[in-house]
Write a structure and sequence with these properties.
This protein is α+β, with helices and mostly antiparallel strands and 330 residues long. The protein is built from eleven helices and nine strands. Strand 8 and strand 9 (323-326) form a beta hairpin. It is elongated, with a radius of gyration of 28 Å.
Length: 330
């Protein structure tokens, strides 16, 4: 995946869609492009009827004349994405980022530099301006606004059951005991003994490799009993979530061995009780995929024309049919 592909449609750091080759790619031009003087109102691109002018691009760089064709295409793409995603978020969903949300996104980007002084040093060294950083932050805020809308409205593609299960990994409680062994033969032996009715604790004390199995203070791990905890804090989170209460389950594999487990009690909130928290989990874990699907559709339906001096609009082999700004000369 190339740099511009990540820029176009990724989540927080970059948005992942179609792209021209990254700088230094032999397939793209990395020579500085000499541009004849152009009127300030000259249109570099038209995006669904809205014009992008030469001034819009020059505002993103300290020195325009030294830019490569890749850099020009990248800046035009950034402007195109902002125009498209802002307009489509508003027309499709009636949402747009607030000034506060854009400011928050800008703060997040600034923090990545370590300080405002370091930010300005990097911008100067890379021939970029604060206006470009502001535009990238607006794009971040648009992405976040669209993702929140798609999740909170439970739009097509959002899996609320998956998000609920992910929440329960930390917000439910399982009381579980286990016997830890290393081999299939060891597992078969302990399983046969407990299935025959032998006391679980006795079999654990005689066979389990859990280093806490022999503790005598009744704490977690004693005689194989891990006590009551979140599934995520067990060696086998998914099995602890799924095992039927009161039944022996195994073999369960973990990073420390093979287990026979028994969940003897489980408590979990109902979905409706924690729906708000579930949606936040969905934003965190499914946001990128939801946004990428939406953004791909927006890009494929977009009516974009690029002034041929600065590139063209269309797909590249590496963008899987998603259009992007292709550098001039490619």
């Amino acid at each position: 995946m190339t740099h511009r592909l990540r820029i176009a449609l990724a989540a927080a750091a970059a948005l992942v869609v179609g792209c021209a080759p990254a700088q230094g790619d032999p397939a793209g031009s990395t020579m500085a492009t000499t541009i004849a003087p152009i009127p300030s109102d000259h249109q570099l691109a038209v995006v669904n009827g809205a014009a992008i002018s030469i001034v819009d691009v020059t505002n993103l760089h300290r020195e325009f004349g030294d830019l490569t064709s890749d850099e020009i295409a990248g800046s035009v793409l950034l402007l195109v994405l902002n125009q498209l995603f802002f307009d489509e978020a508003l027309s499709q969903f009636g949402v747009q980022p607030t000034e506060e949300q854009i400011a928050t996104a800008l703060d997040a980007r600034t923090e990545r530099f370590g300080s405002a002084e370091r930010r300005d040093e990097v911008l100067a060294a890379t021939n970029r301006t604060r206006a470009r950083l502001q535009l990238q932050s607006q794009l971040d805020a648009i992405r976040n606004t669209v993702v929140r809308h798609l999740v909170t409205t439970e739009a097509e593609g959002f899996d609320i059951d998956l998000a609920y299960r992910q929440l329960l990994l930390t917000e439910s409680t399982v009381c579980v005991r286990h016997i830890q062994v290393l081999t299939e033969e060891g597992f078969a032996l302990v399983q046969s003994r407990v299935d025959a009715g032998e006391d679980f604790a006795t079999v654990a004390l005689e066979n389990s490799l859990d280093p806490l199995v022999d503790r005598t203070d009744g704490g977690s791990g004693a005689a194989g009993d891990l006590g009551c905890r979140s599934p995520a804090s067990t060696p086998f989170p998914e099995a602890a979530m799924e095992a039927a209460v009161g039944e022996y389950v195994g073999p369960v594999f973990s990073s420390v061995g093979t287990h026979l487990i028994e969940v003897y009690e489980r408590t979990a909130p109902e979905l409706d009780e924690v729906r708000a928290e579930v949606l936040e989990v969905g934003i965190e874990t499914q946001g990128d995929g939801l946004f990428n699907t939406w953004a791909t559709g927006v890009l494929q339906a977009a009516d974009v024309t690029i002034e041929e001096t600065f590139g063209t609009w269309g797909p590249l082999p590496e963008t899987n049919g998603v259009p992007t700004v292709i550098p001039a000369g490619r």
